[in-house]
Amino acid sequence: MQWEVEALEPDELQRLVLAAVDPYIDRDILARQIAREEQQRRTLSDFVDGWARAGGGTSP
Question: Does this model's pTM top 0.90?
Answer without folding.
Answer: no
